UniProtKB/TrEMBL annotation:
The keyword Transit peptide does not apply. GO terms for molecular function: S-adenosylmethionine-dependent methyltransferase activity. InterPro entries: Methyltransf_11, SAM-dependent_MTases_sf. Keywords: Methyltransferase, Transferase. Residues 242-273 have a biased composition (Polar residues). Residues 82-131 form the Methyltransferase type domain. One of its GO terms (biological process) is methylation. This is Methyltransferase type 11. The keyword Methyltransferase applies. Pfam families: Methyltransf_11. Residues 238-293 are annotated as: Disordered. Gene3D superfamilies: Vaccinia Virus protein VP39.
Length: 293
């Protein structure tokens, strides 16, 4: 990866962005973005996180036990734990990260949707996926229309709106929980003014220079199949607990059917009854009294 053409191209783009982050405008933007990210990751303890950032590290305030930084080449790796691999082929197992942060790389990757798909793959079910991007409908986006031919960072990237990335996230089964806009500059100011920043953040106006998207994996509900209860035969009174006589009738109806031997015995019994002689009781006639002459 470090010697490939793609890695070399990404390394040049990363190096070309560093002068902007060292300028007054870049530092001001980074500070406001870090302020937006802080409340989201400060409460997450333990686990792993991965940050693919074009600027300085943003996850310094997080309590995640194992933070990882990504780099396109070994020469730009900050430490031994830096992940060096293609952005669309992250060398990580599925659903292993509690926090996944992509900071402005989607604007400078040729196949950005593949990188987003990989980021969704490595994010855990209870983890969060955070995307930072430049807002094309903000004040800086309008100024960018006058600088289309400039090849310097950040004007040379492909700025996408938050609604466009929402569609991309839906394609990888992620849903947007919140979109925060940050860095509200004055007309001629390089810094994000405190007044404009507090006003824009309070009402979350979509006019900031940058936005932060917080997304989670969609939780699919298990299908519920309702059971249909029905009786093939009418219920006896015994099943309803009405009378005692009904219980005996109900019991008789559930007795096992008579076997062949039982039927034979019953037939023999009937024959014996028919063949048994009937003894008639003699009728005694009382003699009439003789008539007396």
């Amino acid at each position: 990866m470090s010697n490939s053409t793609t890695a070399t191209t990404l390394a040049k783009r990363l190096q070309s962005s560093q002068p902007y982050w060292q300028s007054e405008a870049g530092r001001s933007l980074w500070e406001t973005q870090r302020a937006c990210l802080g409340p989201v990751v400060e409460s997450r303890v333990g686990g792993h996180s991965l940050e693919m950032s074009m600027g300085p590290a943003l996850m310094t305030m997080s309590a995640v036990a194992h933070p990882i930084r990504w780099s396109p080449t070994l020469q730009l790796a900050e430490n031994d734990s830096t992940l060096v691999c293609p952005p669309d082929q992250l060398a990580l197992p599925d659903r292993c990260l509690d926090v996944m942060v992509i900071h402005h790389w989607l604007e400078y990757l040729t196949d950005a949707h593949f990188t987003l798909q990989e980021a969704a793959r490595v994010t855990a079910d209870n983890g969060i996926l955070v995307l930072f991007g430049f807002n094309p409908i903000g004040v800086s986006g309008l100024a960018r229309q006058l600088r289309k031919h400039q090849q310097t960072f950040p004007w040379s990237g492909s700025w996408r709106s938050a609604s466009r990335l929402r569609d991309w996230l839906a394609f990888v089964d992620f849903e947007v929980e919140r979109v925060d806009y940050c860095c509200f500059r004055g007309r001629m100011s390089a810094k994000c003014g405190e007044y404009w920043e507090s006003l824009g953040r309070r009402h979350n106006l979509p006019l900031g220079e940058s936005y932060m998207i917080q997304a989670r994996r969609q939780q699919r509900q298990a299908p519920v199949q309702r059971l249909k209860f029905g009786l093939k035969a009418p219920a006896s009174p015994a099943s309803l607990g009405v009378t005692r006589s009904g219980s005996s009738a109900h019991y008789q109806s559930r007795q096992a059917p008579a076997t062949h031997q039982d039927q034979a015995r019953q037939t023999d019994l009937q024959k014996s009854v028919l063949q048994k002689p009937v003894l008639h009781k003699p009728v005694l006639h009382k003699p009439r009294d003789q008539e007396i002459d």
